[in-house]
Design goal:
It is built from 19 helices and 12 strands. It is mainly alpha-helical and 471 residues long. Among the domains are: 49 residues; 99 residues, Arc Repressor Mutant, subunit A, CATH 1.10.10. It is found in: Cytoplasm.
Length: 471
């Protein structure tokens, strides 16, 4: 049997860790067994579905390299197929038209709740063979009334539902739009889906779908319901929370490898192994190792994983990503040190590429608007005079290297009886416009003599112009 899986998101929001993990596990199952993976967009909720969410889904899938073999298919384009099945089901009395008004349905529901009865439709239109021409109606599935619906889930084991609890649920709304529980079954049958991977919040839908499949005399797929993923507060993930959105991590300079590894380990493990490349994921993934317990999204874990990838990924890949973010800031990396030098010296300080790009711009630009308040707090007349002295001494430095730069700064500090920390602080501010940054000696070396002297000169002018040396 050829394994065929699918990922079928609804484009009513951005992909988050929950549905992206479903996509990954479904993709891995198909690849592990050398099967097929299908992308299907379930967009029958016309009011809430959006083109921007569809585009985002496709971009996120491509970013994570979860390439599909067929699709994307759109349910909105498959209504003719659904109608064909509906006509057959009505003809075979598997489904029927229901003309009951909202008022009547509400009255039944209130009565059932008042009398401690589980709310469900009373089958009035089925029992009385109701037909009303030119009247609005829904189409209901004729659920079995006796026996049990039993299925074996690969994660939760045997699940048994008493059919007396099942409702004759709506499969087509009164506006003619088919519902999720109907469309998903027809699509899975037509696409020959063998394994259905989804969140355990769909377990309640499974008996409904199984009974439709059985009524159409089709083969049942294997069900794999994944435990929920919760946020740090123990609540279900929201599509509208930016911290859960896959696209947020892409925009913030995280690596796709980081997100794939994080998703993989949300409820699945292979011994103590933490880091997996894509081939290891495909070869080692096993449904039996999926944990039943809910997983928690731990942002610190994502940061730690990404920091690890910052160290182990090839430099050419880091350069490519860093270049992308610097170009977005309109920074010309040709006007400064080679990116490889910046990466080798400073990458260990950052959690992601965006953070690095935000702290590396000063390697490539001498045009600062100095922070008046910052300088006011850290400069005085003595420092002002020392900066003039330092400028003249460095102007005559011929051999520009870390050792000579370090020795000169220390010598000036000692000669002028100035705390080295204070000198480093003012130098940081003048060459980076920031009080906190990396080893100042390395920065001075990398920006080279011409840029260093220009920044010190501009800083001295700014201090003089604003009379900060009188503070």
């Amino acid at each position: 049997m050829k394994i065929i899986t699918r990922f079928a998101p609804s484009p009513t929001g951005y992909l988050h860790f929950g549905n992206m993990r479903t996509a990954l596990y479904s993709w891995l199952i198909s690849k592990h067994y050398k099967g097929k993976f299908i992308l299907r967009i379930e967009n029958t909720d016309i009011k809430r579905s959006s083109k921007k969410y569809i585009n985002s889904i496709i971009k996120d899938m491509k970013w994570l390299k979860l390439n599909w073999d067929k699709g994307p298919y759109f349910q909105i384009n498959r209504f003719k197929l659904y109608k064909k099945y509906l006509n057959y089901m009505i003809k075979k009395k598997i489904a029927y038209k229901c003309y009951c008004s909202k008022k009547r349905l509400l009255k039944i529901r209130n009565y059932q709740i008042k009398n401690g009865i589980k709310p469900k439709y009373d089958n009035y239109c089925l029992k009385n063979n109701v037909i009303k021409k030119n009247k609005p109606y829904v189409i209901r599935f004729c659920s079995p009334k006796k026996g049990y619906t039993i299925f074996k889930d690969k994660v939760y084991g045997c699940i048994k539902i008493n059919n007396s609890e099942l409702d004759d649920f709506v499969i087509v709304r009164n506006n003619g739009i088919p519902t999720y529980n109907f469309c998903v079954v027809i699509d899975d049958i037509e696409m020959k889906i063998t394994h259905v991977v989804r969140g355990d919040d769909h377990i309640n839908n499974t008996p409904k779908q199984i009974n439709i499949i059985k009524s159409l005399k089709s083969k049942l797929p294997t069900y794999i319901h994944l435990p929920l993923i919760l946020n740090i507060d123990g609540k279900k993930l929201s599509k509208r929370n930016n911290d859960n959105k896959i696209s947020t991590y892409k925009k913030n300079g995280f690596f796709s490898e980081t997100i794939l590894n994080f998703l993989l380990r949300l409820g699945w493990s292979y011994g103590n192994k933490e880091i997996f490349n894509i081939n290891e994921m495909i070869n080692l993934f096993n449904i039996k190792k999926i944990n039943k317990s809910p997983s928690i999204v731990n942002i610190k874990k994502i940061l730690s994983l990404n920091k690890n990838y910052m160290k182990i990924l090839p430099h050419y890949k880091i350069i490519k990503h860093l270049n992308y973010f610097l170009k977005k800031k309109k920074i010309n990396t040709k006007k400064g040190p080679k990116l490889i030098l910046v990466i080798k010296n400073f990458i260990k300080h950052f959690n992601n590429i965006k953070e690095m790009s935000n702290n590396c711009y000063y390697f490539y630009s001498n045009n600062f608007i100095y922070n008046y308040i910052l300088l006011k707090k850290n400069v005085n007349y003595k420092l002002y005079k020392i900066l003039i002295l330092l400028y003249n001494i460095f102007k005559n430095l011929k051999d520009w290297n870390n050792k000579n730069i370090n020795n000169l700064v220390k010598k000036i500090s000692l000669t002028m009886n100035l705390n080295l920390k204070s000198l480093f602080t003012i130098l940081r501010i003048l060459i980076t416009n920031n009080k906190k940054c990396f080893t100042v000696i390395k920065i001075i070396y990398l920006i080279k003599k011409k840029s260093f002297l220009l920044r010190i000169k501009n800083g001295i002018k700014f201090i003089f112009k604003n009379k900060l040396y009188f503070v």
